[in-house]
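hiii so my PI (J.) wants the whole complex modelled not just the main chain, which honestly fair. so below is everything: two entries, each one labled with what it is. i double checked the lines twice but i was tired so who knows lol
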Amino acid sequence: MDFFDVVQKRRSVRKFTDQPVDSQLIEKALDAALVAPNSSNMQPWEFYWVKSTAHREPLIEACFRQNAAQSAQELIFVVARLDTWKRNQKLILNWIDTLDSPPKVLVNYYKKLIPLAYMRDPFFIKDTLAYLMTTLIGWFRPTPRVSFGTARAFETASKSTALACENLMLALVAQGLSCCPMEGFDEVRVKKVLKLNRHSHVVMGIGIGYAAEDGIYSSQFRIPRELVVKEV
Amino acid sequence: MDFFDVVQKRRSVRKFTDQPVDSQLIEKALDAALVAPNSSNMQPWEFYWVKSTAHREPLIEACFRQNAAQSAQELIFVVARLDTWKRNQKLILNWIDTLDSPPKVLVNYYKKLIPLAYMRDPFFIKDTLAYLMTTLIGWFRPTPRVSFGTARAFETASKSTALACENLMLALVAQGLSCCPMEGFDEVRVKKVLKLNRHSHVVMGIGIGYAAEDGIYSSQFRIPRELVVKEV
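here's the output for the full assembly
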């Protein structure tokens, strides 16, 4: 399907028919998600594709039994993690090794700078020192600012994960499916069902299926462009 | 262009030719950004399209003069805001008024629940009370969890804004352009140039242009799918 048709066609569909979804369509959409751009290529995302009824029922319950979850033929919970960076760093360094004459700056970036940015220490000593340092240097010249604390680290990870979510949702629509991104769920319960630790954050749930006739609840409202696009 | 071709074609291009970009292409991409899904349709985003040299130079400086900024024909900084919700809430309520028989639940959602979620108080009294309440209720039944503090509020706003960024970037690629999302900038300096207050967060800068022959720096590496897609 043409790209702009996909973008226009994507709406949050909150009710699905009982037509089952071919797994290959979901797999193709997941593949599209995985090539999304992301911070330092650290790919902090995880996709939980709900297959078993044992998981499905409590997850629908955790989504307050909303139609978008209950009538969904497939459910995916997308998670941002702060604790996969070491594994990913190692995989990236291995890949860099396979390149013809890998640039030294790239090796240093992943070997030295990534740990500085991604390492979490429970007392925020690293964050405090980095904050003081960058604020000081920042008085004199442009300086990368560090994200202080766990919530800001999640902000960065969620941002990358959201880019992948958008690819995923558009890819579903491009294949004739519909979906609804959900943030209305009990995150504590979702994490319990998915056995996620405190270094994980559920970015969104996505209900997937074929749109019911009354699946779109209203017309689309957008804030007027002149209020949000500024030419400076 | 076919949707999946666009997704595969999108790569971070870090060097652009000096061919200028037709403004209409940028406008079409911005329109695609604005129809992205987002939290409660609150559209917390803003797009700063850099047109004047007076702004362009210090912004490139704030991006450490990286190629992706310096050689870009167009630059857009995408911002998440916590202080536009009242205006947006009002616009949404006005729009709801124009609907045939607007559902009462929708009116209540925007009149009563949105302020609870979006209001910021400097001493986090609201957040603390909401946290205690939802934790208590959450022991007994599924409960929406509140995001505690400013950093978590930015996490939500950045997430929605990132969904729009992905639409924007893919829409550029669909029109034969290339782009590079950048997080490597001095946010303090970028905010100063764009005159942004503390309720704003610069989610990313996007350098835009036609790809130079050596604009893509390496092949694309992805974490193997079996490590990040879990069937549960």
